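Q: Given only this backbone (212 positions), what sequence would you predict?
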């Protein structure tokens, strides 16, 4: 029995599926985009997880042989593991089920499995599991955005860090944090502006003293 001609897309459950596939054309294109996007998500989580404003901090680890705590968010590390494991799982499924058996990805890193799965996508969407695959890939992207929203992209600030003295302060619109590994100083943008005022006042005072 075949439902090939009146099958509904297993991803959006609205549009008709594309010929012998289990999903429609727009969902296929979105899925390909999401697979590609997971490589960037993985890197982005890595950037975010080592330096976070205090409100994000769910746990901290101590740098080996130093007493300086490194801000560290376990949720981002876990999300990275989930991306790696989910892609490796699906790659293994394809290798086991597809005939002739394809060469597996050369390793289980996201950089290897995501593009490899993209090359297998034409076959995957012809399998009944296509809907599950789509949901899991989309779920990973949604969860990444929840754990580490993109609007928290950091921009550099001109003043040195009041704790370590390095030009390493950045802000994400509201929060300011030192990006130097091992420092972990964080403050609000209001506190940063206060620091600016203090430095400006100190400079004005020095100038006055020189003029006198
Ligand atoms: Zn669809
Ligand atoms: Zn610092």
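A: Predicted residues:
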């Amino acid at each position: 029995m075949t439902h090939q001609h009146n099958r509904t897309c297993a991803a959006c459950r609205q549009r008709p599926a594309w010929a012998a596939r289990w999903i429609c054309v727009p969902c296929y294109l979105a899925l390909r985009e999401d697979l590609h996007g997971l490589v960037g998500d993985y890197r982005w989580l890595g950037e975010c997880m080592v330096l976070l404003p205090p409100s994000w901090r769910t746990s901290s680890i101590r740098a080996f042989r130093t007493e300086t705590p490194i801000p560290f968010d376990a949720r981002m590390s876990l999300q990275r593991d989930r991306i790696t494991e989910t892609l490796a799982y699906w790659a293994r499924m394809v290798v086991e089920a597809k005939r002739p058996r394809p060469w597996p990805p050369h390793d289980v890193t996201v950089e290897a499995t995501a593009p490899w799965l993209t090359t297998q996508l034409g076959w995957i969407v012809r399998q009944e599991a296509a809907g599950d695959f789509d949901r899991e890939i989309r779920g990973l992207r949604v969860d990444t955005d929840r754990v580490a929203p993109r609007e928290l992209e950091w921009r550099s600030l001109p003043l040195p860090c009041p704790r370590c003295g390095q030009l390493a302060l950045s802000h994400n619109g509201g929060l300011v944090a030192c990006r130097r590994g091992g420092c972990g100083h964080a403050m609000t943008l209001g506190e940063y502006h206060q620091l600016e005022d203090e430095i400006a006042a100190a400079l004005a005072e020095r100038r006055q003293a020189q003029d006198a």
